[in-house]
Amino acid sequence: MSRTIMVVDDSSTTRSLVASHLLESGDYDIVEAASGFEALKVLPAGKVDLIITDINMPDINGLELISFVRENPIYRHIPTIIITTEDSEEDRKRGMELGAMEYIVKPFTAEEIRGAVGRVLK
Amino acid sequence: MPPGAKSNKDNDPEGLDREEDQASAAEGLTELLGFMLADEEYALDILEIKEIIRLRTITAVPRTPDYLKGIITLRGVIVPVFDLRRRLGLDEAGHGQHTRIVVVYRGDEFAGMIVDSITHVMEVGVEEIEPPPPTIGTVEVEFIKGVTRFQERLVILLNLARVLDVKS
Amino acid sequence: MAGKKEKSAYAEFVIEAEELLESMGDRLTALEKDAEEGNVDPGMVNDFFRSMHTLKGLSGMLGLKNVSDLSHGLENLMDMLRMGKIDFRHGAMDALFSGVEILSRLVARVGAAGSEEGIDISAELRRIRQAMEEKAEGDRDVTLENVGLDQRILETLTEYEEHRLLDNLRRNNSLYRVEAHFPFASFDRELHEISEKLRSQGEIISTLPSSDESSPETISFDLVVGSAKTRKQIARSLGKRKGVTLHAVECGGTPPPAAAPASREPPERAAAEAGYESMTLKSLSQTVRVDIRKLDNLMNIVGELVINRTSISQISQELLVLRGFTGLAVDLSKGARNLERNLRQLQQAVIGSRMVPIGQVFSRLNRVVRKLSQDFGKKVELTVHGEETELDKLMVEDLADPLLHLVRNSFDHGLEAPAERKKLGKPEVGSIELRAEQRGNHIIIEIEDDGRGIDVEKIRKIAVDKGLLEEGHSADEQSVLNFLFLPAFSTKEKASQMSGRGVGLDVVKTNVARLGGMIDVETELGVGTRLTITLPITLAIIQALLVEVGDEHFAIPLNSILESNRIYKGQIKTVEKREVIHLRDRTLPLLRLADIFRIGGSRAANSDKLYVVVVGLAEKRLGLVVDSLQGQQEVVIKSLGEVFEGVTGVAGATELGDKKAILVLDVGALIEEATHGS
Predict the structure, then answer these.
(1) How far apart are CA C502 and CA B159, in angstroms?
(2) C541-676 maps to CATH 2.40.50.180
């Protein structure tokens, strides 16, 4: 009974890192989205248990994605984790105010990712 | 905003109140292209139209609804062609010397629609366009955006998005 | 790590870094001018910031400390500038100009010598620090308090976007909110379209999506735009659009007149004071980035030219007939022939310009493997061959993900841990090899590892359990391995992990098939696995066989045709209600195009003799029954567009000389249909 995690980031390297850290445990399926738009497109396609999103992305930003998820009764229950850089403390704060459950700061380790996901999906 | 009213960007209380204003309705007048289908006059907003061409060989695409006539090429671009009579549920008719393909915008792409003939371009006030009556001849109401009168004749405005929506 | 590999990683870095620095240099000149006029384009500043951020990331990954430190410093500086925390004054401009110049020198040094030694950056870092201390002049106080925007929009602004919003207010720009409702299926395209329009009028500050559970087929967006233009101007630029409404936003209070532009003296160029004798302004790589759509457009124009050329040739022929071999007619025919030759060269040149070396993807994979190796403590050496092999740009992009997936599979499931490898007597460092080569009209890409291989018997067992194979069936190894590419195998129950392969091979296969290619797997237990991808060189132009069915013509891509035969009606047998023929000891299923496409008037229906075009993809074969063969031709494939999205069996259309479009068959889909039933 594995859970599906959507990883949203415009950097393919970041996506594959997050994905490989999580796939290793075998408990999760990963869906990748290279932009906020892609995330919006993929979201209705299947059951997503958790969204991990970058904040600064070209089309819609991560905060807008989180707000979108919160607003829609179908998606409201999906928890979110944000990925930020150390410089963007303010954006991280806003993300948490919007209801993100955890944040991860780049560069991150496998343990940090798995730890955050584990706490949220417990 | 009343037709012809000037607005100022810094001070536009009227515009603020009228939030539902369509983006382009600012002018109050709209230009329509009229065309004939089975002895009735229909029209589209001129802004929806790319060009009008003569009928040319249409290549059928298999496994598609019968109102999709096929494809043509227009300066190297593939354009789908709708048989507008069939699309609207009218009787099919042969093509003659006045038959034209009206090429319209469809998102990033184009689409062609076969019409019996082109009538003319008419200028109509936005407020002169009325919502469609519950029944108009044989054409389903969902395809109609509104009706208006031009020189004492009834002109039916097509809802282009619905006509071109192949998913339904 | 071998020196050669390191160098090739640098080579790609140098190209990318030079492009970045070149565009930053261009922007800097424009920025300087704009700053003098007190009218800096925030989009440009943000682009500059992003470029610097990318450069920092790239150089950091390659361990180029000086480039990475300096670009990090400049990134921080740009960040303060874009946030309005400091102004574009002497210090900042100087630091940027001289920083970019030093970065260019560093990159050039890396390209030429493979090292960044001998260039000192401490003076630059000092300059940056000083510039960051020049605080911005006190700005007119504006707040978002009285701005008539929904709380939901305000709370999703990033810090940067909020700054942009305030800055627009400071400039006395108007704010607009564009409300857009789009069909879910096409929202990205439509949104892109209006965003382009809005950007020509001002700055898009925020794009907030929302949806309603009652209408899942539509999605809505609120765009916040700051602009000096009037509402009418913006409305006009938007044009008439379904579902798009423009609102003016209350900005609160009457704004005072705009502040006078910040004036400043021309900057003293750092280059001058430092005396960079060996400085070269010439870029090492002679590359230009072109939007692929421009190339598509070019291709369309070439197509048009070919058509015009045909009619000129015809006129010339007629003239020869009419006038005989007289001066003018002969001259025209000569001219037409020259035109034809030139056009062919032009066509080839245009195709050539779409081609890029596959090395672009390979080096990305290299970086991923390196990182994986660090993260998971598995030692692995990635070697690449044939990175200069060229492929259509669009295909290279679409190949990146499938290749990444395969390489990750090799890493995760193929290669053993170092300890295990030692025990097995294998070298501790695992090996993944990537090879690309051109064979005729195809590109072959191989991914080979020296890991544990795939246990064919295990797969056979799973296939039997799943009912895909009958107990005791003597399917050969290849057919058993092909089960790996079935969706049922790769997603359900994680069966594939047991067999030593990761999930998602079906997706890889689908993606490769979409590019007109196929994928094969060879493996030896305990020794390793090799995956081979075969692709056509370009998707845009292909050789095709033209066939006739009734009055319709179709093009069949030549690279999927094995042979074409004339057969007699009597050779056709019926097995389980399906027509087949026996051809060279194989049973070949037949598909009558006239039947599946419901084309009337096909002669093949009643004729005693008919034509069969045998097509194949990977191991599968199919005979297509047609009325006649019309010869081969090079055709440009174009998409049928969104209206025909769901139509199966047709890959696209092409235009022949007479302005008539003909359909290009999707051989893969037809085979799928014939073998899995309709």
Answers:
(1) 49
(2) yes
Paired residues of B105 in beta bridges: B110
- The residue from C22, C46, C53, C655 that is catalytic is C53
Identity (one letter) of the amino acid at B41? E
- ipTM higher than the 0.85 cut: no
pLDDT at C587 exceeding the cut of 80: yes
**What are C255-264's pLDDT values in tens digits?**
433 333 333 3
In chain B, residues with a C-beta closer than 8 Å to the C-beta of C303 are 76
SS3 C68: helix
Pick C158's closest partner by Cβ from A37, A59, A61.
Answer: A61
Interface of C with B in 631-660 (CB under 8 A): 638-644, 647-650, 652-653, 655, 658-660
β-bridge mates for residue A104, sequence order: A83
Mutate: best of B16, B22, B166, partner C, most C CBs <10 A = B22
Domain C358-536 has CATH 3.40.50.720: no
For C238, the closest of B23, B75, B77 (CB atoms) is: B23
Q: What is the domain partition of chain A in residue ranges?
A: 3-121
Residue C547 has pLDDT above 90, yes or no: yes
pLDDT confidence bin for B25, thresholds 50/70/90: very low
| Residue of C139, C88, C102, C107 whose CA lies nearest to C11 | C107
Cross-chain Cβ contact A16/C404 below 8 Å: yes
Domain locations along chain C: 3-133, 151-249, 292-356, 358-536, 541-676
| Percent of chain B topping pLDDT 90 | 42
Partners of A59 on chain C (C-beta within 8 Å) are: 188, 191, 207
Q: Which of C62, C158, C193 to mutate to test the interface with A (most CBs of A within 10 A)?
A: C158
Each residue's pLDDT tens digit, C626-662 = 998 887 777 777 778 888 877 888 888 888 766 689 9
List the domain boundaries for chain B.
27-164
pLDDT over 70 for what percent of chain C?
Answer: 86
Q: What is the pLDDT of residues C335-369, one digit of tens each?
A: 888 887 788 788 778 877 878 888 878 877 877 78
Of the CA atoms within 13 Å of residue C660, those in its CB half-sphere come to: 13
Instruction: Mark whether B and A touch (3+ CB pairs within 8 Å).
Output: no
Residue C569 per-residue DSSP state? G
Q: What is the mean pLDDT of residues A2-31?
A: 81
CATH for A3-121 (3.40.50.2300, 3.40.50.880, 3.40.50.300, 1.10.150.120): 3.40.50.2300
CA neighbor of B122 nearest in space, from B28, B32, B21, B26: B32
Residue of chain B whose alpha carbon sits nearest to that of C599: B62
Contacts of C185 in chain B (CB under 8 A): 167
3-state secondary structure of A34: coil
For residue A6, the model assigns a pLDDT of 92
Would you call C416 a catalytic residue per the annotation? Answer: no
Whether C76 sits among the annotated catalytic residues: the reply is no
Average pLDDT over residues C12-32: 80
Nearest chain C Cα distance for residue B57, angstroms: 6
**CB burial readout C197-236, b (16+ within 10 A) else e:** bbeebbbbbbbbbbbeeeeeeebbbbbbbbbebbbbebbb
How many C-beta neighbours within 10 Å does residue C261 have? 12
Q: Is C634 a catalytic residue?
A: no
Question: Residue B77's beta-bridge partner residues?
Answer: B74
Architecture of the domain whose range is B27-164:
Beta Barrel (2.40)
Q: Which residue of C has its CA nearest to A84?
A: C158
CA distances from C616 to C540, C552, C648 (A): 20, 23, 17
Superfamily of domain C151-249: ACT-like. Chain A, domain 2 (3.30.70.1150)
Query: CB–CB of C240 and B166 under 8 A?
Result: no
Task: Report which listed range, B23-37, C50-64, C275-289, C426-440, is most confident.
Answer: C426-440
Label residue B87 by pLDDT band (50, 70, 90). very high
Strand partners, C663: C554, C653
| CATH match for C3-133 among 3.60.21.10, 3.40.50.2000, 3.40.630.30, 1.20.120.160 | 1.20.120.160
Question: In terms of CA atoms, which chain C residue is nearest residue A70?
Answer: C210
